[in-house]
């Protein structure tokens, strides 16, 4: 039985990942899972670029404490503006990104999880349940992208 992680791994290997309801659901589940894990870990990670075309550097995935609606603060992964004046302002959740950006997000998940795993190792949180789960996901995405 294919899990939502298997779907993300498979779509990430595609040249043009299909963006549909299944992908949206998988990104929503991933986003919710990462929110819970990030809240436990509290390890900041500024991840790969997910901007479009020549503006690729403008947006990046970032795990940190974000200010969301109604001044609520939450640890999670978001697509953030990476320009110096923006202060890593959260723009979109993973499922809230545009169809074109979702393709970029899905393709960069192996890089994202590898980097996040390294940040967790550097913070000494790799032996926590949440840290071990992120490292497991990093291995899962690396195996699938090889």
Break the fold down into its secondary structure elements and pairings.
Elements: H1 4-13, H2 21-41, E1 45-49, E2 59-67, E3 73-81, E4 90-92, H3 99-122, H4 129-145
Helix pairs in contact: 1-2, 1-3, 1-4, 2-4, 3-4
Features:
146 residues, alpha+beta, four-stranded antiparallel beta sheet, 4 helices, 4 strands
Question: What does this 3D model show about the protein?
Answer:
The structure is a single chain. With 146 residues, this protein is of the alpha+beta class. Helices cover 49% and strands 18% of the residues. It has four helices and four strands, in the order H-H-E-E-E-E-H-H. The protein has a four-stranded antiparallel beta sheet with strand order 1-2-3-4. Helix 1 (4-13) crosses helix 2 (21-41) and helix 1 (4-13) packs across helix 3. The longest helix has 24 residues, at 99-122. The model has no long low-confidence stretch (mean pLDDT 94).
Topology order in helix (H) and strand (E) letters: HHEEEEHH
Mind summarizing the main beta sheet? 4 strands, antiparallel
Q: Helix coverage percent of residues?
A: 40-55%
Quickly count the helices: 4
Question: β content, as a range?
Answer: 15-25%
Strand order of the largest sheet: 1-2-3-4
Task: Give a short overview.
The chain has 146 residues and is an alpha+beta fold. The chain has helices spanning 4-13, 21-41, 99-122, 129-145, and strands spanning 45-49, 59-67, 73-81, 90-92.
């Amino acid at each position: 039985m294919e899990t939502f992680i298997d779907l993300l791994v498979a779509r990430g290997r595609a040249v043009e990942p299909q963006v549909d309801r299944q992908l949206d659901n998988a990104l929503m589940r991933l986003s919710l899972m990462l929110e819970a894990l990030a809240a436990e870990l509290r390890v900041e990670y500024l991840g790969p670029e997910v901007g479009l075309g020549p503006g690729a550097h403008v947006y990046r995935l970032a795990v940190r404490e974000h200010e969301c609606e109604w001044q609520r603060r939450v640890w999670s992964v978001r697509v953030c503006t990476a320009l110096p004046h923006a202060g890593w302002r959260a723009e979109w959740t993973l499922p809230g990104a545009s169809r074109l950006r979702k393709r970029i997000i899905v393709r960069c998940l192996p890089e994202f999880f590898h980097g996040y795993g390294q940040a967790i190792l550097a913070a000494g949180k790799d032996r926590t349940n949440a840290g071990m789960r992120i490292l497991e996901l990093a291995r899962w995405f690396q195996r699938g992208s090889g």
